[in-house]
Design brief:
This protein is mainly alpha-helical and 111 residues long. The protein is built from five helices and two strands, in the order H-H-H-H-E-E-H. The protein binds zinc ion (2 copies).
Length: 111
């Protein structure tokens, strides 16, 4: 018996979603796969631009807190927009994780 690769539910003999049991599991698996690459250093070392999905992953990773002052305003839904990814060496094409820091506008200015 085959199982869904996402939720491990048994798959019916005639299944329309390949190795997954549902549309939902297919979607989740695709997201997992896309996000898995952000967890590898290679991904960051090989890009020269941070796309919006990668940026969102970074912000989630730091839980929307400024890496300079730790400011986080849960009530402020714009936090995600206000935080800026800063390249420590000043080279915007160097996106390796240890070259990145995420700062609020206040810390940006203090730099
Ligand atoms: Zn499933
Ligand atoms: Zn700050």
């Amino acid at each position: 018996m085959k199982h869904c690769e996402q939720c491990e539910k048994e798959l019916p003999p005639r299944n329309n979603y390949g190795q997954y049991c549902s549309m939902q599991c297919t979607g989740l698996a695709q997201q997992d796969k896309a996000w898995a690459e952000f967890r590898t250093d290679e991904y960051w070392e090989n890009i020269t631009e941070i796309n919006c999905t990668a940026r969102r992953w970074l912000l989630l990773k730091i839980r929307f807190k400024c890496m300079g002052c730790g400011e986080f305003d849960a009530a402020n839904k714009a936090a995600e927009v206000r935080l800026e990814v800063e390249h420590l060496d000043g080279n915007r094409r160097n996106c390796s994780l240890d070259n990145l820091t995420i700062l609020c506008p206040k810390c940006m200015e203090g730099n």
